[in-house]
Amino acid sequence: MNVVVGVDAGGSKTLAVAAGDGRQVGRAQRGSANATSLGIETAVATILDAVREAAAGCEVDAICVGAAGASRRGVAFPIRQALVKAYPAAQVRIVDDAAIALRAGVADGPAVVVIAGTGSIGYAEDAQGQGHRAGGLGWLIGDEGSGYAVGLAALREAAKALDGRGEAQGLLELVREQLPATDREELLSSVYTRSGAHLETARVAALAEGVLRLAAQGDRFAAAIVEQAAADLGALALYAARAAGLSGSALHVVLAGGMLRGETPFTALVQQRVERALPGASAQVLSREPVEGALVLARR
Predict the structure, then answer these.
(1) Does residue 114 contact residue 238 with C-beta atoms inside 8 Å?
(2) Which of 37, 161, 250, 277 could form a disulfide with 234 if both were Cys (CB 3.0 to 4.6 A apart)?
(3) Contact at 8 Å (CB) between 205 and 146?
(4) The dihedral of CA 144, 148, 154, 160: what is its sign?
(5) Domain 107-286 classified CATH 3.40.50.300?
(6) Dist CA 207 CA 67 (whole Å)
(7) Is the dihedral of CA 298, 12, 75, 124 positive or negative?
(8) What whole-number distance in Å separates Cα of residue 116 and Cα of residue 147?
(9) What are the phi and psi torsion angles at 18 (to 5°)?
């Protein structure tokens, strides 16, 4: 059977799906293929292994991989090279993971996606299919509105409360529950390792769920953090759209990522901020797996 293969090579897992005759015929899941954190050799091996299992026994006509960091040649080129070598008869395309999330929500035409998980990014494609980004610069200088940004803001408010400089007792209790932080010394030991490295981004981002819960319960400090995050994500949509020369009129905006799943108060707030920033736009939560967008591009 002749198939196309779509791959979502994300930070937490790698999913490859083979499709032929209008249906999925193979599926394989592996661990993270994040080249930035794991190295390009590990990322390439993980992706190739997943593709081989998903397409086992099939003739592969095309492969599209959506990979974190694929806008950088040092990431995209080695992945493409390995797949071309393994499947010389197939057309191979490597795109940013934001591109497949966009096409999972809107199959064709100009559109915008805002992704908020551990990190964040705004991404748009114009009428010519060119990609344009806003944000997505990582935990150190970007990722506004992300789980990491929300968690870091909570940590800062909790530290003030622990010191007697602030009143965010709800956030302090949240931090105490999730980190050893009964006093200043324990907080410092939790956040900074002996080598001076920072607390893992995933552990900081894990605080976001509790912050959203406190905000929904009326905690004013948590609510302020959540309001800022929603405003930041609305801004990412606006500036990605501007970079692509798109206006809000009838514009589709896809909301994706772990922070924007389901009908939650935060998702509704982000929808409002996006539609306020882009009057006439329609912001909808992604209801399909991002790998479906990779299949759309592979078929194309």
Answers:
(1) no
(2) 277
(3) yes
(4) negative
(5) no
(6) 26
(7) positive
(8) 7
(9) -105, 135
Residue 65: in which H helix or E strand, if any? strand 59-67
Domain 2-89 identical in fold to domain 107-286 = yes
Residue entry with tokens 């399909």: 288
What is the residue extent of each domain of the chain? 2-89, 107-286
Packing angle, helices 220-243 and 208-216, rounded to 10: 110
Say which range, 50-59, 66-75, 108-117, 186-195, has the weakest mean pLDDT.
Answer: 186-195
Q: What is the pLDDT of residues 3-26, one digit of tens each?
A: 999 999 977 789 999 999 889 999
Pairing, β 120-125 against β 131-135: antiparallel
- The DSSP result for 22-38, as a single string, is TEEEEEEEES---HHHH
Task: Please provide residue 284's backbone torsions phi and psi, each rounded to the nearest 5 degrees.
Answer: -130, 140
**CATH code that applies to domain 2-89:** 3.30.420.40
Q: How many residues does the chain have?
A: 300
- Amino acid, res. 263: E
CA 78 – CA 43 distance, rounded (Å) = 9
136 torsion bin: left (phi>0), alpha (psi -120 to 50), beta (else): left
The one-letter code for the residue type at 193 is T
Q: What letter does residue 198 receive in the DSSP assignment?
A: B
Confidence of residue 199 (pLDDT cuts 50, 70, 90): low
User: Angle CA(240)–CA(245)–CA(246) in degrees, nearest 5?
Assistant: 75
Question: What phi-psi label fits residue 120: left (phi over 0), alpha (psi between -120 and 50 degrees) or beta?
Answer: beta
pLDDT recorded at residue 151: 96
Instruction: Judge whether 70 and 79 are in contact, CB under 8 Å.
Output: yes
